Amino acid sequence: MNWSEARVLKYTQILNAIKDKNVELRHDVDVSLQSAFNMAKVEKMNDVKSIYYIRFDSDCYNPLSFANSKIINYLASNHEIGCHVDVTEINNENELVRYLDTYNKILPFKKFTFHINTEKTKLFGHLKKYDNKSILINDYISDSKNNFTNTDFQQVCDLDNFTLLIHPEWWDNKEFTFRGGNGRKKLLQCLRLEEMCDKIEKEILG
Predict the structure, then answer these.
(1) Phi/psi class of residue 3: alpha, beta or left (left: φ > 0; alpha: ψ in -120 to 50)?
(2) Comparing C-alpha atoms, which of 80, 26, 36, 25 is closest to residue 58?
(3) N- or C-end of the chain: fewer Cβ atoms within 10 A?
(4) Helix axes of 193-205 and 183-191: crossing angle, nearest 10 degrees
(5) Strand partners of residue 113
(6) How far apart are CA 32 and CA 22, in angstroms?
(7) Which helix (H) or strand (E) holds 140?
(8) C-alpha–C-alpha distance, residues 43 and 29, integer Å
(9) Among 162, 169, 160, 168, which Cα is nearest to 190's?
(10) pLDDT in tens for each of the 206 residues of the chain?
(11) What is the C-alpha separation between 133 and 32, in angstroms, rounded?
(12) Residue (of 190, 196, 180, 108) closest to 143 by Cα position
């Protein structure tokens, strides 16, 4: 577990606020499965279930690697798995269904979400085989762009019947606060690029 006690406490406050409410707790795993794993462990400690939407064709992580497969198995056994879809190369519903079917054979899932909603994603209607009803009736709260304010937290406490979207990578770094901040700097920290470069340098140069 890479989280500090302060971060565990902050996230636990949110989890406590949504208990016994009609809330869909959703995670779009855009950057790091390790960050998702760290978040899932906190949820398990608090007896909270959520759904993790995986990028099966991510440029940031390989979901089929041995280490990441172990993480996905942990997520699937303790929570729910969905598919997070980038429609850049998808042009119609038939292509979308083929895309989902391909990855569903690797790891079964029933739900999907779009990675960045655009005018293009609005063209896709309801798919009979897969569920994209990720936003509940009343409200939608998100920490997108690493911005989860005290006002957002108060809404979580006050509202019922909503989707709460939390991106694991924004929480899995030492400088996270509810006030947000330098998103680029924090993203680089989450990716651990400096550590990765050190490792590659040692492997190449000895």
Answers:
(1) beta
(2) 36
(3) C
(4) 40
(5) 84
(6) 28
(7) strand 139-142
(8) 15
(9) 169
(10) 567 787 888 899 999 999 989 999 999 999 889 999 999 999 999 999 999 999 998 888 899 899 999 999 999 999 999 999 998 889 899 999 999 999 999 889 999 999 888 788 888 878 888 988 655 556 889 987 777 888 899 999 999 889 999 999 888 764 444 444 455 555 555 555 556 566 656 656 65
(11) 24
(12) 180
Residues 74 and 104: their CA atoms lie apart, in Å, by 17
The backbone region for 92, taken as left when phi is positive above 0, alpha when psi lies in -120 to 50, beta otherwise, is: beta
H or E stretch including 53? strand 51-54
Which residue matches tokens 């990716």? 191
CA end-to-end distance (rounded Å), the chain: 29
Amino acid found at 103 = Y
Q: Which amino acid is at 199?
A: K
CA distance 49 to 173: 22
How far is it, in rounded angstroms, from Cα 138 to Cα 151?
17
Tokens at 82, concatenated: 């969905």
| Gyration radius of the chain over CA positions | 17
Residue count of the chain: 206
Give the pair of three-digit tokens for residue 59. 């440029």
Contact 60, 31 (CB under 8 A): yes
